[in-house]
Amino acid sequence: MNPGTSEMHFVAALERVPAMHGYLCLFEGVCSGAADGYARVSGNPAATLLHLGPGLANGLANFHNARKARSPLVSIVGEHATPHLKVDAPLTSDVAAFARTVSDAVRTVLSADDVGPAVSETVAAAWGPPGQVAHVIVPADYSWSETSITGPVAVRRERALPCDDAVDRARSALRESGTAILLGGTAVNARALEAAGRTGDRVMTARNVAKIAWGRGRFPAPQVPYFPEFALPFLADVRRLILVEAEAPVSFFAYPDTPGYMAPDGCEMIVLARRDEDGTGALEALASGPPRALETASPPGLPQDGPLTLDSLGLSLAALLPEDSLVADEMVSSALKILTHLNQAAPHEFMPVTGGAIGQGLPVALGAAVAAPGRKVVALEADGSGMYTLQALWTMARHNLDVTIVIFANRRYRILDIEMKRTGANAFGPIANQMTDIGTPPLDWVALSHGCGVAAARAATVRQFTDHFADAMKQHGPRLIEAVLS
Amino acid sequence: MNPGTSEMHFVAALERVPAMHGYLCLFEGVCSGAADGYARVSGNPAATLLHLGPGLANGLANFHNARKARSPLVSIVGEHATPHLKVDAPLTSDVAAFARTVSDAVRTVLSADDVGPAVSETVAAAWGPPGQVAHVIVPADYSWSETSITGPVAVRRERALPCDDAVDRARSALRESGTAILLGGTAVNARALEAAGRTGDRVMTARNVAKIAWGRGRFPAPQVPYFPEFALPFLADVRRLILVEAEAPVSFFAYPDTPGYMAPDGCEMIVLARRDEDGTGALEALASGPPRALETASPPGLPQDGPLTLDSLGLSLAALLPEDSLVADEMVSSALKILTHLNQAAPHEFMPVTGGAIGQGLPVALGAAVAAPGRKVVALEADGSGMYTLQALWTMARHNLDVTIVIFANRRYRILDIEMKRTGANAFGPIANQMTDIGTPPLDWVALSHGCGVAAARAATVRQFTDHFADAMKQHGPRLIEAVLS
Hints:
Chain A is α/β, with parallel strands linked by helices and 486 residues long. Helix content of chain A is 36%, strand content 16%. The first copy, chain A, folds into 3 domains: 5-144, Rossmann fold (3-Layer(aba) Sandwich), CATH 3.40.50.970; 164-286; 310-484, Thiamin diphosphate (ThDP)-binding fold, Pyr/PP domains (Rossmann fold), CATH 3.40.50. Chain A contains 19 helices and 15 strands. A 7-stranded mixed β-sheet of chain A has the order 7-11-10-12-13-15-14, with helices on both faces. A 4-stranded parallel β-sheet of chain A has the order 1-2-4-3, sandwiched between helices. Chain A has a 4-stranded parallel β-sheet with strand order 6-5-8-9. In chain A, helix 11 runs parallel beside helix 12 and helix 11 (310-320) packs parallel to helix 19 (462-474). The longest helix of chain A is centred in the first third of the chain and has 18 residues, at 52-69. Chain A starts with 7 loop residues before the first helix and ends with a strand.
């Protein structure tokens, strides 16, 4: 929460409802991202409490990511008292218009007696399935007026299995050559991967999922590549694609002379499970074969000392990451190499950026740590992206949350260096080059972390990184390691 | 700017248009606030360059403030290439819906040939008068396609004087008792204040103005008080209010049993100049008396050493603030006392928070320093508010901008402690109390500043503060002082 004057009655009420835990965040984008992280890990909605249109505005980017993750999320937004709206005070704005940019579920409370019913509807809307960002806008006078009406307890609707026809169509398709299975949504967990492995020879996973099972000992289901020049050949021989809580794969960005859809023209899309259905159950219904014997790779060893590169850093992470940990990924240009290494780590889950809005990683790690106090959370964060919502560090410190943050300090908006070449724009000259250079002056992440109350250290060699990261894995509480990449 | 893939052609073009200066900011709210500060000081629009809906979302809170300041501002927002919109990529959203939350001037480019005309229209719309936030949404394919069409050069429309009738009506009203003049908009500059002083006995200024003349040697025109319990008696005997680029005064927030409009029922509102008219010229047309002899107060002396309180800090600032400096004010609960002291400082201008959206102060100071390289900029910033857009420090360091930042570290959301009592919510218990406590753990602003490359020091006594601030006034370049309040 990051409340203001219009939300003071809500805050005061925390005293009377101790089961409601308030986590103060020093910027609203931390609230919305943390609620997303909480939902991804627990499957239940967290609530955010934000202040009027501008407070909501600051949360929108991570609400956008939550929307694309299909995370259930209850967004409570205070509004001026209704008689005050006509005076056009400085903070007056169209709160519902802000809310609708990231959701179709926007409910404005109409009276004090309507607060309870409106909140119940909002919780139900958030649950879905699939989950969604559901807003409830609460005018201050309805907060401070008496009412004895409470809403009904919202009942969670469970995901249903798809109809038998859908399973039969998928089964028929699997008998043909050129058929692949694309897993998305919630159907990228360990059970779904195991069932998919018994079902088809060619299984792949979507990129924009809330949380995916990762690490060694899983059935290999590669992600559809990010860049079209890799995604297009990856999918070139697919003639039928069975979609499990997934959509047809698309390019993240458009480029001149490049298609938007990545599967070949004429590729048949066969929906086994929609986004609101139980894709994991559907895969288990479809699966017929015996469990597959998987290669039991041994844990990778620690890398030799040397300069800190993405490869050496990835090896170190893969060797040290604890089993059942939760990885919040906002590595951007560093992601591909590191995730390849992490596929050799102990079984864990990682949470990708779903909507492409920057500033998700640290808040999602914060919310994940609140949801799963017994699991180690590791935030793998690009230095450029980390700056958008670095205020998350303070809330981690305040609640001694068990999050280890690794900052990938390449001191560039490296992804834009790559994209500049790809979009066909002219090569950067020295002026344009400054617009992707975030190393002048260099950010000092150790100082930034100390400023927020989180212990921190810098690593410039593999040995230093390994020592700091191994220490962090043995301890409880927030730690930041600035990995200065060579 | 904080560009992304869809804006790469714009960035590349900086190489060919060296008169266009790009300032990279590490968070979009810094861009929008800096453009607002630039406009407030120069009167001309700066452009922001943001990336798709979520990038725009992060800029909205300070666009809201710019809107309420009537700042001219050109917001350029990249969009996916038009053929890509149908594939619903992760970053796809309704960009225009985000834009419309803070502006009615939203123009989407329709073809490559339309880029020039659309930008010209947008610049003209931004200028007004009054100024406004004008958005132009540019799909990537229209950026990367050839065109030979340029738009017409936008011509600035100057503010017109109000009609003679309006001046006559105001003149008649001034002959009656109980008439006061309320200055707002751009009519709070030194010329306007001087003319108002020759015109009427009772002159007051609106709070939500972009930039106001301040310091000793001005005609005393007190601001309408912030809280209703002070604003209501302040205006109780006003029977006619002459509005000069101002609206009828309203309460910032609503409270139980408190009216929204602050002037008494039946008070007549007489518009001398609308928001789009030349209020300063109108006051000069209205003014009849000779120049008033003003008290020539001598500069205040430095305070004795002792604990750092708002009073001793205010005295120190008032003694040391250089003439013609620009003060960005986001002191929130500390503002009243400090501004009272600053009214004894050398003549300067200060820039209040106009729209109530938090996170304006540091970005506005950044933009002001870009607009006025010869003037000292002083950002007076509450510790809570400063955290929303602290990334502004990095851009100040990068361009060695002459900004001195004073952080008022009371380690509370103090304004909410005050508002909690005022809204009639129950007194805070220990749980609710944590939601306004930002001192657990304490933020270390010296470390945060160093992290962004800005030299910094901490002051816990008046002597320490005076020494640091006097040093900063003698030097050029960014400096931060964390003033730990007793």
